[in-house]
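The following block was generated as part of the benchmark described in Methods. Ligand: zinc ion.
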Amino acid sequence: MRDYTNPSFASRIILCVISFLVALTLFAVPGRVSAQAVTYPEYVVVYGDTLSWIALRFDTTVEDIQALNGLGDNGLHPGDRLKIPTLAGMQGVLTTEFVPLGSSLTSLSRRSRAEPADLIKANKLTSPSELFIGRDIVMTRSEDSQGMETIASLKQGQSFFESSILAGMNTWELSHLNRLENPTRGLPMDTYYKPSEVDSPSNLAIPGLKEVVIDNLPLIQGDTFLIKISSDEPVSVKATLAGVEPVFVDMGAGVQMAYGGIHALTEVGVYPLTMEFTNAEGETYRFDQYVMINSGNYATDKPLQVDPLTIGTPEEAAENAIFKEVVKPVSPVQQWSGLWYSPAQDADCIISRFGSRRTYNDDPGLYYHTGLDLGYCAGIDVYAPAVGTVAGVFPDQVVRGNCIVIDHGLGVYTIYMHLREILVEAGEVVQPGQLIGLIGNTGRSTGPHLHFEVDIQGTPVNPETWLRRAFP
Ligand SMILES: [Zn+2]
């Protein structure tokens, strides 16, 4: 704690002020005063940048950047610093960051100590919905800026004074740092910061919550997402995104996880993620933030001709209804660990990818491919990709043929269709690499292949994601 009554400290301040005034008079000699120099923030060139890209990004021209920076025709080099003509009046270094969860213009401005108006200008923002999670945003930072850590936001009825004491800081210092004119103006659910060695990963400050992470950004149609929450005290969580309500499972040690699948036909765009946290005292904190759902760039398969009995019939509907129930339960234990094996050995034999748009038998209705088709070329064995429990085996289905469903826990299931033979039984625990069946041509199939599907709470998601990266 600084002691402002210490005489030596006070005399040092006075000395500083005097020297500053002397310096001012020196510069104030008539005829030597120039107009106050215009400041520009500096952009640090990274590998792959071009002048035309930088000009486009900051709404300026290559010529204006060259003129302001005295650049010749030499190429750019990573680490070069360029003043940006359209951002006159701003200072510091421009950095590009991803908008963290819980961000608003106010919180970003507090965090970076930049004026909100400058952030709007540097990012050409026209609406708060443009600050969606995971988009990149240009921030200014002073050269010597410290990290900023979120502090627990005020509980209902708690004062900013109490909160600053809990954060171990002087109330006035903290309110100044957080651009509050008056500490009594602190609001519950608002995000406040204190200087720290490291930056907090999120901008969300809810009492009792340590961290909220959305994994697998940027979000893509037909892909998996994971929300991971760490808290100091028991908290129940609800979340909604694009019609998906992922189920949170307590993993122990204050961690909760929820897997969700974005439907492959969800329109590309910005959607609100709504989260509600209720603590042991029954207080509920709610927040909304926009998230971009990007295109999966799915292909269109050539029109398919299949047995008319297998499409748009009561038999198909009845079968779909049964499978919907099979993959519904969210088992509270994650059985798999790490990256998954491919259920058929050779990746070259992919014959149709997840998400491709399809039509059947000249029906104008749009379908999409709910799995990954692995061809016959690698042999006929089908292996379990990860640990799981066989949720059911289903011989002779109209659409799926001979089919196996495996429950991996937390709402994540794998499904194997069109098999010639099923080599496991319901209730059996399978190990990664275990032989579970043989590839066949049963059900709605136009040649021998394995249809491998990953469902999360009943929504098919891109299996290739699970073969490419480990969750969590
Ligand atoms: Zn398929």
